[in-house]
Design goal:
The longest helix is centred in the N-terminal third of the chain and has 41 residues, at 3-43. This protein is mainly α. The chain is built from 14 helices and no strands. 77% of the residues lie in helices and 0% in strands. The protein has helices at residues 3-43, 51-58, 69-104, 116-130, 137-161, 167-191, 194-205, 213-232, 234-240, 244-249, 254-276, 282-294, 298-322, 331-348.
Amino acid sequence: MNLDQNSEINKALKAHRKREFRRFIIIIAFLVVAFISLIFDIATGPSMLAPREVLDALLIPFGKIGVEATTEVIVWDLRLPIALMALVVGATLGVGGAEIQTLLNNPMASPYTLGLAAAAGFGASLVIAFGSAGIPLLYAVPVGAFVMTMLSASVLFGFAALRHFSSATLVLVGIALLFLFQSLLSLVQFLSSPEISQLILFWLFGSLQKANWTNLLFIFIVSSLCIVLLLKDSWKLTALRLGEARAKSMGVNLNFLRFKTLLIVSVMTATAISFVGVIGFIGLVAPHIARMLVGEDQRFFLPSAMFCGAAFLSVASVLSKVIIPGALFPVGIVTSFVGVPFFFWIILSRKKVC
């Protein structure tokens, strides 16, 4: 190896390290945005707080004194669980969308477009409309949504296990499930009284207001475990983006990878949706933003999609409280207002984003 070759190798390594550093900075930037949004999410509400008051209240466990008792109650007992729930659910939906798009090689794929969210809505509507066998609705509705989501996912698992089924066909199956569960949901609403139908509609809007420390901890644990498992398959999913044929030549078992990833994404998505309702477009928008900024390397793509989703939903939570002062917009509507224009932009843009 001569000096010219060594020089070229060093240049390539230097450029690679530079790209990795830039991607790391982007991830940090998403984290900073998410933290700033968290502060404003806690500060906004019927009783507005200054960001400084929020920071002081958050530092109480570290010895901060002089914080008013009312401020402490508002921050720690009322708003912090909701604000953290926005971050955790946003991160979960962002990762879920990123892995579904990677797995199916389709920029329009997400847990929402594959029918998982519609299945959750149908499960919740069944419980609200036809009773919960004596179980309080607070617990029965999430269980009903989770069970129906996993039932929908099991249909996807069945098709994914078939050898002759490609990723494109799996997307079509997901779209069929989406329309099926939406039709069933409409049927339940049609058969229900106006009061029950209104309850179902409110659940479908998606809301973070049901968050508390218990369900927040549960979702956080499930999502963290699932994300760790997905990170372990980073190189296999990166290889899959090079094409199914090339991934097979690298020794990747596509059927097993497809089944495993679908199972993990379904569990984490179902867990999040069952507690907060249907919140669309996070799983579609966050992966696209992350992909445009850091590329397809899963080591950076997955964390970027996760923190971008967290920041997106946290900002949407703030907007849901400030659009009309004194009124609380369902956060699912706010994410749709932001997501739909972005969806159109994806369709109309000539730039290839994935």
